[in-house]
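Saturday, quiet lab. Running sequence design on the structure tokens for the scaffold JK sent over.
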């Protein structure tokens, strides 16, 4: 029987695998950098419904259900060095602190952080002079430690290394021998800039000083290109796929006009992705929430060929996306998590609707974001078992 890495590569290349690759991964890192594939409140609920108490983390839940996952190599293509968390005030359930990017935010303390996004009080970049300082201090491609990377499985760091480190050969061995597909993180265009300026600030800046936004995106692309090139040329080991992070849409469409995205970001995607393609990485994805309909053609133009998590509540439909874009765009996610809270009949209806797409190849069906605490252990168990049996049937229908 082929391993998960082999199955992933066959499915994403429209070849016939022996089994489905059951995509499971963390979505989002909030104030305390904890992965939220399964909310901790979800796991606490499930403990009361029969989940063994020792199964107490997203990683352990995955092992318990026999899920597949990816070995992630986190490259330092963004803010480095990160700012140490500095708490400036604590009031009740909240704390006010400077985050890793240097933004001043207000956030729930402890496990309650999962229930809401942080409230931004002050952003690190509001004008050109602040950008020049931020670029010099936080986005220097030659900053000490920039060359380091973390190898991560289920949100847990297995190894930190660099091409000049004593354990670099160990890192090569872990990547080479992994039975899980290996991912490298490339960076961001819109998403990180929005984090540094705020959506309102970025929107005004596109009107007031489009050249500043262009400089920010160009610098991020140059930084990604530099880090990725250095890493891959030193590694000389097969990487299965690469990912970008954006979160640049809401339920009605993109957070910026597509014309800005096309003129400012797409050329940068293309040059970084050309670097990946030239080094043997031809599966390149983007993680973005919201309705992606108007963005997908632009991402395709920039060299991206799979999108996730395809949130149904935001209007995404993997069946319609495949009709529009054919096999050129691979798809991941697309199973409406809300149905898992509604009961077994709703789960079966949802899987009956979406899973036939598996037979076309290039689709990894999974829940369309994190698993919230309104989903019972019984419903989730039913979903996992039904997903497995139906996918096995549709995998056999793939034609080469």
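Result came back. Writing it out in full:
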């Amino acid at each position: 029987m082929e391993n998960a890495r082999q199955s992933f590569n066959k499915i994403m290349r429209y070849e016939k695998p022996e089994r489905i690759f059951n995509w499971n991964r963390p979505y989002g890192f909030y104030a305390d950098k904890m992965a939220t594939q399964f909310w901790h409140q979800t796991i606490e609920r499930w403990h009361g419904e029969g989940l063994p108490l020792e199964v107490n983390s997203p990683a352990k839940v995955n092992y318990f259900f026999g899920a597949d996952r990816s070995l992630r190599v986190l490259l330092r293509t963004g803010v480095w060095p990160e700012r140490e968390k500095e708490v400036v005030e604590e009031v009740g359930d909240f704390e006010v602190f400077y985050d890793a990017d240097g933004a001043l935010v207000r956030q729930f303390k402890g496990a309650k952080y999962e229930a809401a996004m942080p409230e931004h009080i002050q952003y690190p970049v509001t004008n050109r002079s602040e950008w020049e300082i931020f670029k010099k201090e936080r986005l220097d491609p030659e900053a000490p430690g920039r060359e380091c990377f973390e190898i991560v499985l289920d949100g847990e760091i297995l190894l930190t290394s660099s091409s000049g480190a004593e354990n670099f050969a160990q890192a090569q061995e872990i990547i080479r021998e992994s039975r899980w597909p290996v991912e490298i993180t490339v960076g961001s265009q819109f998403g990180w800039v929005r984090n540094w300026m705020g959506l309102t600030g970025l929107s005004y800046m596109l009107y007031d000083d489009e050249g500043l936004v262009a400089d920010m995106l160009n610098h991020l692309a140059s930084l990604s290109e530099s880090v990725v090139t250095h890493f891959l040329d030193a590694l000389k080991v097969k990487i299965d796929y690469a990912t970008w992070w954006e979160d640049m849409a809401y339920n009605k469409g993109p957070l910026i006009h597509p014309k800005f995205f096309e003129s400012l970001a797409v050329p940068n995607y293309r040059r970084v992705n050309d670097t990946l393609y030239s080094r043997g990485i031809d599966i390149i994805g983007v993680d973005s929430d919201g309705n992606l309909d108007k963005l997908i053609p632009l991402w395709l133009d920039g060299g991206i060929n799979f999108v996730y998590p395809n949130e149904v509540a935001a209007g995404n439909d993997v069946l319609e996306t495949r009709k529009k874009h054919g096999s050129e765009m691979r798809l991941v996610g697309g199973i409406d998590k809300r149905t898992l809270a509604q009961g077994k009949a709703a789960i079966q209806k949802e899987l009956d609707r979406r899973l036939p797409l598996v037979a076309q190849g290039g689709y990894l069906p999974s829940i369309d974001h994190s698993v919230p605490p309104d989903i019972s252990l019984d419903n989730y168990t039913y979903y996992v078992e039904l997903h497995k049996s139906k996918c096995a049937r549709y995998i056999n229908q793939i034609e080469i």
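Notes for JK: The domain at 4-82+125-395 is CATH 3.20.20.210 (TIM Barrel). Confidence is low (pLDDT under 50) at residues 29-33. Ask whether to fix the surface positions before the next round.
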